[in-house]
Write a structure and sequence with these properties.
377 residues, single chain, mainly alpha, globular
């Protein structure tokens, strides 16, 4: 589609992903926590999570269609907005709660596969579109994107049903569960906002072409961060189970941090070297994005350390601290983007992203060790 259409799509999808973090109202993470501690709690929590995801997802999708044009500054037909809203706000969260279900049972192969379903569906839709239609535009792709997301969400639900065999029951949630789930919803909203709203900001401030180059660079750097992020995903259910043993939790957190630092250091030269490959992967129109990747050299390491720090804070019982730190990071990102992007365009966005995650990683791990010190005392 080229940088301009890709930038428009990324900015619109980023806003949808930010709203999609609220889908499920936090019951997915509540299910992960409860099931990790007691596998017998899975079926009842799965039913509640499904109901919360479906009902809240359609409401949030309607909100997105109503506000997307005004938020991004780019009017687009409501049908196409719906083609973005339902995959990002309804279908993608379904694959995520399916991953939580497998994580809770320590079926990490299945859990990782659920996260891969969305990208696999998008690539399949694009490949079929190219073979059937030939030319690709944003408008023609979005319908295929929509239907592939529905197929992949259906596959995720089928996988949980067949492999984990939940027994569906009448959903009931207490007030305390509702409050705890809401806390998780706020946490996910801040977390997802950090990972998605930057594309919408760049689109609004710098336009479609710069947004396209910046998003291409971001995607490549995020891919390199996957080993460290996967470590954070794998450790979360174990840390939930260790919650009653503070010394074991502290030992695990320290061990994971050492591995996170080691993996993070390895990603820096890989990111810098991969900048030359970006035009090959995305097309020669994206050559300017290679310079953004070089600025983002430390980003995969920082992203991984942030993911590990966030998981550690949950396990140590400081969820509110995690939310406050990440909310501060989001404010810093918005301020730095609005100051740097008008002057330096895509390079300014890359500098703002690295600055945000340097501060965020430092603050998260400072909070982790503060919590460890308090626990020891």
């Amino acid at each position: 589609m080229g940088p301009e259409s890709y930038g428009l799509f990324a900015g619109l999808a980023g806003l949808a992903a930010a709203l999609g973090a609220l889908t499920g109202l936090g019951f997915g993470l509540l299910m992960l926590q409860a099931t990790s501690r007691n596998s017998a709690a899975f079926s009842a929590n799965w039913t509640k999570t499904l109901l919360a995801t479906g009902s809240s997802g359609f409401v949030l999708a309607s909100v997105y269609v109503a506000i997307a044009a005004a938020a991004t500054g780019y009017p687009i037909d409501s049908v196409y907005l719906l083609y973005i809203a339902l995959p990002e706000i309804v279908c993608l969260p379904i694959t995520i709660i399916a991953s939580y279900a497998f994580q809770a049972h320590e079926r990490m192969g299945w859990a990782g596969a659920m996260y891969a379903l969305g990208p696999a569906g998008n690539l399949s839709a694009l490949a079929i579109l190219v073979l059937v239609v030939g030319g690709v535009s944003l408008e023609t792709y979005l319908a295929w994107h929509f239907w592939s997301s529905i197929v992949m969400a259906s596959f995720a639900l089928a996988a949980v049903t067949i492999v984990l065999r939940p027994i569906h029951s009448r959903p009931q949630a207490s007030m305390s569960e509702g409050r705890e789930a809401l806390g998780y919803a706020v946490m996910r909203a801040v977390d997802n906002g950090l990972g998605s709203i930057d594309k919408t900001l760049v689109l609004r401030i710098a336009g479609t072409e710069i947004a396209g180059h910046y998003t291409a660079a971001y995607r490549l750097a995020s891919l390199i961060a996957l080993p460290v992020v996967s470590l954070a995903i794998a450790m979360t259910p174990r840390l939930f189970r260790m919650a009653s043993d503070s010394e074991a939790t502290i030992t695990m957190v320290r061990k994971v941090m050492r591995w996170g630092l080691l993996l993070g250091i390895v990603t820096i030269p890989i990111t810098l070297a991969s900048s030359a490959a970006l035009p090959v992967l995305f097309g020669m129109e994206f050559r300017p994005a290679a310079s953004f990747v070089r600025i983002l050299g430390p980003f995969p390491a920082l992203l991984g350390l942030c993911a590990l720090g966030c998981s550690a804070l949950i396990a140590l019982g400081w969820r509110s601290t995690r939310i406050l730190v990440q909310a501060g990071g989001m404010v810093l990102m918005v301020v730095s983007m609005t100051q740097l992007v008008p002057v330096y365009e895509g390079r300014g966005a890359s500098y703002a992203l690295v600055l945000t995650y340097v501060v965020l990683a430092s603050a998260l791990w400072w909070a982790v060790f503060l919590r460890i010190s308090a626990s020891r005392n």
